[in-house]
């Protein structure tokens, strides 16, 4: 479950007429994420590319031609903007989060508390759900709030699943206030040591993500037909990853839990009884 694996990318459960728009949104988000995160380009180059990417977004939003750098992204996205009236501000929010990914690294530059991390999730994850609701024509406030909870939970789950990968790369999402509350030693955490304090911290973060996901789960009953079933599997996939992180009892600092074929059976069974 990487950053955008939870995005329902034109799957068989998605109505055929929405597969193209969803694929266009996914390509936009995936490419921007790669600019921010992949390869060995220095931070200044990544930020320059993200600024150019944002310029192309503004160009197509204003009916102008984008640059020739990412035609596979902006040509189909411009068509979707016209046909679906997508809120451009949500796409811009995603880009602001990718910029933050480049600028905010290491524990000293990490997140002070949960409120600061949630603001990041508001821009890095929640726009995805709101864009999908827009495509499905779901606009009431309660659905938006539940969608935000699910997307935020998926982002948090991704963080706690990827501790063993992110921390060595300088990506640090564990709030400093939570670390202090559990008596965590920063040097031991950065060294990925399996201490009791680190295990308590991760367990508390798992509970936070689980409660957030459960608060948004009623949305599965608001979405029509196959969309509701797909969302059931997304929710259960996230909860199943949390099961695995929790079972490691702090071991996710050195082991990245993954879903296997038997987990899909568990997820399907849970989805059926939601």
Structure description:
With 274 residues, this protein is an all-alpha fold. The chain has 2 domains: 11-103, no CATH class; 110-274, Farnesyl Diphosphate Synthase (Orthogonal Bundle), CATH 1.10.600. The chain is built from 13 helices and no strands. The chain has helices at residues 16-37, 43-61, 71-84, 88-103, 114-124, 126-136, 141-161, 163-166, 176-181, 186-190, 196-216, 225-247, 261-272. Helix 1 (16-37) packs antiparallel against helix 2 (43-61), helix 6 (126-136) packs across helix 7 and helix 11 (196-216) packs antiparallel against helix 12 (225-247). The protein is globular and about 55 Å long. The mean pLDDT is 91. It comes from Verminephrobacter aporrectodeae subsp. tuberculatae. Keywords: Transferase. Pfam families: SQS_PSY. Its EC number is 2.5.1.21. One of its GO terms (molecular function) is squalene synthase [NAD(P)H] activity.
Quick take:
By secondary structure, the chain is mostly helical. The protein is 68% helix and 0% strand.
């Amino acid at each position: 479950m990487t950053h955008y694996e939870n995005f329902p990318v034109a799957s068989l459960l998605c109505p055929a007429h929405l597969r193209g728009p969803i694929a266009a949104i996914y390509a936009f988000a995936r490419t921007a994420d790669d600019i921010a995160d992949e390869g060995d380009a220095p931070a200044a180059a990544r930020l320059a590319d993200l600024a150019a990417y944002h310029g192309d977004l503004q160009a197509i939003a204003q009916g102008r031609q984008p640059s020739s750098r990412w035609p596979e992204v902006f040509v189909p996205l411009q068509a979707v903007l016209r046909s679906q009236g997508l809120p451009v501000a949500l796409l811009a929010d995603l880009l602001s989060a990718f910029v933050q990914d480049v600028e905010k690294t290491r524990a000293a530059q990490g997140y002070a508390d949960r409120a600061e991390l949630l603001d990041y999730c508001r821009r890095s994850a929640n726009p995805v759900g709101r864009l999908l609701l827009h495509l499905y024509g779901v606009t009431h406030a309660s659905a938006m709030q539940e969608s935000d909870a699910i997307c935020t939970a998926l982002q948090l789950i991704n963080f706690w699943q990827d501790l063993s990968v992110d921390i060595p790369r300088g990506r640090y999402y564990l709030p400093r206030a939570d670390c202090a509350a559990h008596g965590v030693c920063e040097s031991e955490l950065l060294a990925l040591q399996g201490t009791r304090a680190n295990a308590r911290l991760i367990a508390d973060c798992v509970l936070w993500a689980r409660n957030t996901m459960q608060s948004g789960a009623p949305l599965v009953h608001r979405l029509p037909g196959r969309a509701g079933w797909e969302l059931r599997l997304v929710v259960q996939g996230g909860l199943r990853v949390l099961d695995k992180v929790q079972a490691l009892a702090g071991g996710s600092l050195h082991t990245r839990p993954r879903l296997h074929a038997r987990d899909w059976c568990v997820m399907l069974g849970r989805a059926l009884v939601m």
